[in-house]
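Replying to the earlier thread about multi-chain prediction with a worked example.

Input:
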Amino acid sequence: MADDVLLKTDLKGLTLKGRGKVRDIYDLGDSLLIIATDRISAFDYIMPNGIPDKGKILNGLSLFWFDFTKDIIKNHIMTSDVSAYPRELEQYRNMLRGRSMIVTKAKPFAAECVVRGYLSGSGWKEYRETGRICGISIKPGFVESDKLPEPIFTPSTKAAAGHDENIDLKRFEEVVGKKYASSIIERTISIYRKAYEYAYTRGIIISDTKFEFGLTGKGELIIIDEMLTPDSSRFWSIADYRPGGPQKSFDKQFLRDWLESIHWNKKPPTPVLPDEIVKKTREKYLEAYVRITGRDLQ
Ligand SMILES: Nc1ncnc2c1ncn2[C@@H]1O[C@H](COP(=O)(O)OP(=O)(O)OP(=O)(O)O)[C@@H](O)[C@H]1O
Ligand SMILES: [Mg+2]
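Result:
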């Protein structure tokens, strides 16, 4: 199975636009090819070994959610059918099948559109210190991981390096422009609500998530990047949910616990993951996929 892990792509004759922690992106002119590899990160570092099928799971989840929310906003997906990919990609079809998508190239807005239904991570930290998140007042008395009365929009900057920084709504409006701000906010909340309700029926709490929006060449507002994957969201299991402290990550808990157990100093070199951790982590990603899509991974 380890043979099936894809850690990095190198498509000859194509223009690599960027490599994220997980995805490799190629520029095809008016469109982009987004390939989800099997890389996994923890504590901001990419681990040396991958998780079999993770790329396919992430790609499949994004495709599921983009389709699920297409009544709320148009998205960047053009095709994920490798037989419809351009000729120049023909020799890579087997590698690309199931783990890639061709998308409309957009001009991304320079803000991460974060929506939170629960108090966790940097949101919890800000609330605890100031009683506010991104300038929004939240009533006192909540404990860590509590559900908020309503989901809130808590944008951040897209930092080229280092951590994203939370910004208030005024700053958000300046970054994306008055013309688009309210419709981006409305869409973000609507998508979150719809996905949250659905995932809840499948045993998963989507605590918070992050979307990116962009403008097409024709000036149309669309949603881009990935959607509602465990990499862009916090997924919790309803069965394990206990407010009053941090929650177990649905997908990365085995990995994080193991890294803590070996007292890794969270600096390079990153430790090689034992087979057992790889296997258990793969099972969690797969479980998220099956629960949400209701399908097995092909
Ligand atoms: N349709 C699109 N048009 C233009 N840019 C896009 C589109 N979809 C996604 N992008 C951009 O592609 C990039 C995806 O990068 P990716 O998320 O893989 O890595 P990263 O954000 O640099 O790092 P990380 O892995 O930590 O998220 C983002 O900058 C995103 O804005
Ligand atoms: Mg990213």
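Residues 178-201 form the longest helix (24 residues).

Feel free to reuse this layout for your own posts.
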